[in-house]
Amino acid sequence: MVATPKSTVVRVPKAGEMVAAQLRRQIVTGELRAGDSLPSESALMAQFGVSRPTLREAFRILESEQVIQIRRGAHGGAHVLVPDAAAAGRYAGTLLQYRGATLDDVHQARAALESTVVSTLARKRSAGDLRRLEKALAEGEDLLGDPIAYAEKHDLQFHRLLAELAGNQTMLVLVDIVFAIIERHNQSFINVHRNDEDAGPSVKATQKAHVKVVDLIRAKEADKAGAFWRRHLVQVSEYMINDPGETVLDVLS
């Protein structure tokens, strides 16, 4: 007896979604660049053979993804935006809020991501990578006398530089998404503890950890570098999080 295959319902994309997909492709491939104006509505309607309501539905989709911006007035119309990890971070933050994720959960994910980033960088680092890391260390050293400036202007930038130099674009985007949440919490923490006496020793300990991880990267000690960075980030989370049950909602609301 031959089994009868079950019927499968195939969802056909709506015309607005198909137009949005075509325009999105032009944006992400660089055919349309940041700041460019899209052609007029009448030109796009003729190009895609769609009605005005269908085209505007495509615009709504792309605007919700923050890859275009609709402007009003004499210089109005649809303009291309650079795809932004911060926008993805805001969406991810909303999803984590909905799921009741704790801030500790976010920091654990950060430690896992960044330790992998550091191990990857240590295995492939170049002379140019080391020059950029040394420059970042020097910038951090110059800010040690101003702990608030160090925390606000340097610390996360150093972490992001590690991810950038590791060269994996997927990990870099994931790090940026996590940082969009971490940065909000960091700023809140800084505002509360702006006048604390232990701020100076804290940034000095952080700078010391930065120097150590660069030494391990320079030596291509990939496993040691990753393990060291994970320990450092666990210490950071223990210092930054007062309540392990604090949720992402508490930070982003």
Largest sheet geometry? 2 strands, antiparallel
How many strands appear in the DSSP assignment? 2
Strand content: under 5%
Class from secondary-structure proportions:
mainly alpha
Write up this protein:
The chain is mainly alpha-helical and 253 residues long. Helix content is 69%, strand content 3%. The chain has 11 helices and 2 strands, in the order H-H-H-E-E-H-H-H-H-H-H-H-H. The chain has a two-stranded antiparallel ribbon with strand order 1-2. Strand 1 (68-71) and strand 2 (77-80) form a beta hairpin. Helix 5 (103-124) packs across helix 7 (147-166), helix 5 packs parallel to helix 9 and helix 5 (103-124) packs antiparallel against helix 10. The longest helix is centred in the last third of the chain and has 24 residues, at 169-192. It is elongated. The termini are far apart.
Task: Describe this protein with a few key phrases.
253 residues, 2 strands, 69% helix, 3% strand, elongated
